[in-house]
Amino acid sequence: MPTGDSKGNAGLQQLMMSARKWRCAHERGIWNAAMLGVVALWGWTFVGIGDALETMTFLSVLTYRFLGAALLLGVVHARSLCRLTLRELTAGSTAGTVLFAAYAFQTASLLRTTASNVGFITGTAVVFTAVLAALFLRERLTGAQLLGTGLVMAGLALLTLQGLAVHWGDVLALACAACFAGHLILLGQAAPDLNTGRLAFVQLATVGLLGLLGAVALGGGLSAPAGQGTWATLAVVAVGASALAYFIQTRAQRVLPPTRIAMIMTAEPAFAGLFGYWLAGDRLTGWNWAGAALILASITFTSYTHRAAPPQARAGGPRHTKLSTKGRTAMDPAIPNSGLEGTDRTEGARKRQAAGESAIARGDPMTERPDTDIRTIHLTSREAAGARALVREQIDRYARPEHPHFLRSAPALGARLPDVLREALGEMRYLETDPALVVTGYPWDPQSVGPTPEHWRDHCGQRTREADFWLLLLGAQLGDPFSWSFLQDGRLITDILPLREKEHAQSGHASAAYQYLHVEDAFHPCRPDYIGLVSLRNPGTATTVSPVTTGGLSPEQTDILFCERFQIFPDLEHTSGLDEDGRPSTISALFGSRDRPYARIDPPFMSALPGDSAAQQALDALCTELESAATSVVLEPGAVLLLDNFRAVHGRKPFTARYDGTDRWLRRMTMTRDLRKSRALRKAVDARVVGAG
Asked: Does domain 338-352+377-453+460-512+528-545+633-693 have CATH number 1.10.20.10?
């Protein structure tokens, strides 16, 4: 029976959870307001840039705006830019070229039509994105999108036609909207999850340099801003509407769902119209206002009904988009490896393994790879066929992945995995070269599992059997699979899917809440060494992963984090399952080697010891450092994500659950390198369920 002290500690835990929920709600409110301010500023730029164009050429405006923004981003991301990859340079310069065309059309259109018209027409990029995706990506247009397109065409006719004549400024604005949509599609296809800061810098620099080259090539060169007012306008659009706006938008996407961002962005044309009316003297006729209303209705309607489509693209604001690799070969440079590092083939793996073994032999400390991108192995069609044949052979032999004989034989079956994959898993376990690994290319049809269940209790294991065997085969190369008796009835492989009653919880069943970067089961001494996730269906929700890094912390903060100056509580599921009574454990947040530390953190259930403000500041700094190093991984169906639960932390971005059978659905398994340490909590020596002792 819980004591008075344990009841008090449980009360303290509830108080901490309430405080964190209030802080999360407060944070969401701040970033909602910040995003609304950004959209308002973008609406003003249509008027501000129009004023600057009275004394400058449009190429000069683009040069000053985007080179200034790139310079500011270059200063902010100076250390990260040293790790610029060829793939980021290629994707950024290509997308930047299309972005230059968009802004060139937009800036030129402001010379020939009103700021209000340009604002309303530019907003149609949201609708054009769906149309271009249907044309070039073969995505099916829904009835809602067709209706939205029809509304846009009608609105454009009412807004722009003068009699039967076409206003060329409006045509240029329409070309601008099409380029913005093309930029979004192109960026999503080329690099959905590359480093955001570096990609933004390359795009902004490309736009600025192309503007400079254009100004020189046309013979006039750059025209100097005339007067303080023009200088102020350029400073605002470069710093505020480009560099700062990009930062706010990127940061807001960590805590706000995509549908919320899209909803806020639909206000931009309205702000453009208001500023055009108040500041530029734009006046619309009744028919013009009707056209503007139809355009706004179409933008809003399309944003709400096409949740998978990202918000309108902006300079330096790429979206994380799930892409298909179907029909491509492993040597195709456009293969999307979840936006991560390019495929490592056998020779590269051998070189890294040899380097690691040589360093260990010399007694040298292993060093982190300079980039935070996650290593990805993409199976060739031949490798994938061999892997699938191996999986189906085990299904025929053992029927279910929990079969004791299969659990014992699975590690030895690693010898039959593709060479590159087997070597990568060996490096991950024995050399700790990679805190996380993504495996893509396994042939998987999301429709084969049927609809996403409304609850994990409704799930029949037969539907996911092939994916479960594949996940277990890979995970067994890192450690012994095990489960908790109180989680999903002790199932060895559990479901991650949204539940209505847990939308805002800090758990795998939440959707609306941002899941903080954390170590799985961090409070427990038997926490897993590795975690495996296999994607069955994923409409585009990103899992966030960060290596444990302390590069941005002071030596004093690092020293504090290695001391037992923190308390961690069991989460509510563990409290009920392991008969814990809410008592916190006193721990250090970091342990192991100073140059390659292990982590033990779970922010919603963890704090410094009472009164230790220095420790709390160090913990907050560590969480900020991990967030800044995080990479977003959108797992395509059939992809597997393997995490080192000591050397990486993970979380999830918020999303809007539909509860209609199409929601995100992953399967999860935990692995340990030492099954003996949980022997007192298992019924038998070969049992895999912890907590049943």
From this structure: no
